[in-house]
Design goal:
One of its GO terms (molecular function) is 2-oxopent-4-enoate hydratase activity. With 171 residues, this protein is of the alpha+beta class. The protein is 31% helix and 27% strand. It has one domain: Fumarylacetoacetate hydrolase, domain 2 (Alpha-Beta Complex). The longest helix has 19 residues. It is globular.
Length: 171
């Protein structure tokens, strides 16, 4: 079930075909299953997008959470082949419905292990090595995302399609 959902999403991403609803028997039932599908998807996409190098955090404001109908932020993967330096030119044909968002990216000096939770702002700040002005590249890869539900959006990396990083600013 998890792998079947990941394969369906991977196929749509590779072909740049807008994703319709997943077959009912493989739709992630909840956010936890959505993340399981996401991890399987990452393994399937690695030959095309490279290694996982970080994460994006989406749906961080109350307005967006209400709009998308999810009560908290969620995450998606960022991969080495879709992290670009400032000045890059990317063809629109590489995306389904491309968009951009202004962001601040952080590079960590060390990984934050789940065993270190609960995290505090101070604890996380100590792990930051540098900040980058960033443009998040988002891709609305769906026929109608509003009908898919948060677990499916999470499974597909929550609109993540890469980023463009400006010059690092050390912490």
């Amino acid at each position: 079930r998890i792998l079947a959902a990941a394969k369906a999403i991977a196929s749509a991403r590779r072909s740049r075909a807008p994703l319709k609803a997943l077959p009912k028997d493989v739709v992630p039932r909840d956010e936890a299953e959505g993340y399981q599908v996401q991890y399987a998807l990452h393994d399937l996409l690695q030959p095309q997008v490279g290694s996982l190098v970080g994460y994006k955090i989406g749906c961080t404001s109350a307005v967006m959470q209400e709009y998308i109908n999810i009560p908290h932020p969620c995450g998606g993967g960022v991969f080495e082949k879709v992290v670009h330096d400032s000045g890059v030119r990317l063809p629109a044909a590489d995306f389904v419905h491309v968009g951009v968002e202004c962001e601040i990216a952080v590079r960590l000096a060390r990984n934050l292990a789940a065993s270190e939770a609960p995290f505090t702002a101070e604890w996380v700040a100590e792990a930051i090595e540098a900040y980058h002005p960033a443009i998040e590249i988002v891709d609305d890869r769906y026929v109608k995302w509003e009908t898919l539900g948060a677990p499916t959006l999470i499974a597909d990396d929550f609109f993540a399609a890469g980023c463009v990083l400006g010059e690092a600013v050390p912490r």
